[in-house]
């Protein structure tokens, strides 16, 4: 048992969800600041959370409960590719509902489709229940936001916090009939979480390249998407000695890459130069039709979220799987695949973000608490937000979290 597992088991063995006060001072600081005036500001609220279910989820859930939410009123749908069984066990023992699955029904379809269906079913269940209370949603990629659009009866009592840029962009583009607090694009999330994600992503890239026999020597790496994640990841991989070429559809991001001393190219040229393609965009980049037109094989790596960057899901069948130590046919994130057709591209980690490919949690819980603390602050802000639409995370919350996190590190 490694240290993180021991921590989680310890948390489960003692009362409560974890060791909020002793190990998670940033989350604790947020909780204290919002419960100063009202002891249980979230009493009577239901929570629907779509989240990476890891050990750092425990202090966030514990904080919600300390703020008044009953554990039985929390429904947490963990992303299958990032769920830690030990953390799920602790939450289940506390009475939290965990309807998600840790495997896919069918790896040959998009994971977004599968998790979208689970979340939609939960939202429909809530709508059917004729329950009159209010709903706090902690969303990832606007998966719950999309499902809620089909239930106008829930809109007036729903308050949302969004964790990802992809979800925030969706929320900015459609009319939102409920308040959405945009944690994703808060400055503090970008500059405190960004380096943590990039480091964990670089570790995942190194690992999959090694497993795919590309670990030694200098490679031509094409990084598409020079945003919060891509920019930092590119710097780390360039420091490893690789030739990194950037493509971004945004002129400002492209200029930033050049300013950082990296070469940039349009996508067709980059695809001809690169041996490895790393998608850091949050949107579908290359489908099968585009891939089979390329002159030589690429290693395809997702440096973003879910299995979005390379929509080649039908290739995730046992016959296309590369040999591995894992016996998990319905967990495509544990396998690498070769794509059918004239150009044998390799799809690393089933097209899922490679920072979750490693066995251990990609970012230790005490550091990833910064994101959990931001979501907690977003939750407190969301429940008091009356106006539908997208709301920036309050500066005061950002300053408090930054200060507490800096003290920790
Ligand atoms: N796996 C994780 O742990 C983790 C953590 C944080 C963020 N993410 C995900 O990483 C992705 C990127 O996040 P970010 O914060 O860097 O976003 P960002 O918005 O800062 O950067 C995305 C960049 O991609 C560019 N882009 C978008 N579409 C493009 C296209 N078709 N071609 C070329 N460039 C394109 C944009 O111009 C932008 O510069 C998101 O999907 C996010 O949800 C994953």
TrEMBL record:
Residues 197-361 form the S-adenosyl-L-homocysteine hydrolase NAD binding domain. SUPFAM superfamilies: Formate/glycerate dehydrogenase catalytic domain-like, NAD(P)-binding Rossmann-fold domains. This is S-adenosyl-L-homocysteine hydrolase NAD binding domain-containing protein. It comes from Catellatospora chokoriensis.
């Amino acid at each position: 048992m490694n240290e993180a597992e021991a921590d989680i088991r310890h948390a489960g063995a003692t009362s409560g969800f974890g060791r909020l006060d002793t190990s998670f001072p940033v989350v604790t600081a947020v909780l204290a600041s919002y419960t100063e005036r009202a002891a249980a500001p979230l009493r009577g609220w239901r929570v629907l959370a779509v989240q990476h279910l890891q050990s750092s989820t425990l202090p966030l859930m514990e904080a919600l409960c300390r703020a008044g939410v009953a554990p039985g009123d929390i429904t947490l749908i963990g992303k299958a590719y990032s769920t830690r069984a030990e953390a799920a066990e602790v939450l289940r023992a506390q009475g939290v509902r965990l309807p998600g699955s840790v495997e896919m029904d069918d790896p040959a379809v998009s994971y977004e489709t599968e998790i979208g269906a689970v979340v939609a079913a939960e939202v429909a269940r809530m709508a059917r229940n004729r329950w009159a209370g209010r709903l706090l949603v902690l969303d990832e990629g606007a998966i719950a936001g999309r499902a809620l659009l089909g239930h106008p009866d829930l809109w007036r009592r729903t308050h949302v916090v969004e964790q990802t840029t992809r979800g925030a962009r969706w929320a900015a583009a459609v009319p939102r009939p409920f308040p959405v607090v945009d944690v994703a694009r808060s400055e503090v999330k970008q500059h405190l979480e960004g380096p943590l994600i990039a480091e964990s992503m670089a570790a995942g890239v190194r690992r999959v390249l090694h497993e795919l026999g590309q670990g030694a020597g200098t490679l031509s790496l094409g990084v598409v998407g020079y945003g919060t994640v891509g920019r930092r990841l590119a710097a780390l991989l360039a420091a490893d000695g690789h030739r990194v070429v950037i493509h971004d559809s945004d002129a400002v991001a492209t200029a930033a890459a050049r300013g950082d001393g990296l070469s940039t190219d349009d996508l067709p040229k980059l695809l001809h130069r690169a041996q490895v393609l790393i998608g850091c965009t949050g949107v579908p980049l290359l489908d099968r039709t585009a891939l089979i037109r390329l002159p030589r094989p690429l290693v395809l790596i997702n440096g973003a979220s879910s299995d979005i960057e390379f929509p080649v899901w039908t290739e995730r069948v046992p016959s296309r799987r590369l040999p591995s130590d894992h016996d998990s046919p319905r967990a495509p994130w544990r396998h690498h695949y070769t794509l059918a057709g004239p150009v044998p591209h390799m799809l690393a980690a089933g097209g899922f973000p490679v920072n979750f490919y490693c066995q251990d949690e990609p970012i230790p819980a005490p550091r990833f608490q910064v994101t959990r603390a931001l979501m907690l602050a977003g939750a407190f802000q969301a429940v008091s937000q009356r106006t539908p639409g997208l709301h920036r995370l309050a500066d005061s919350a950002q300053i408090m979290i930054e200060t507490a996190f800096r003290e920790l590190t």
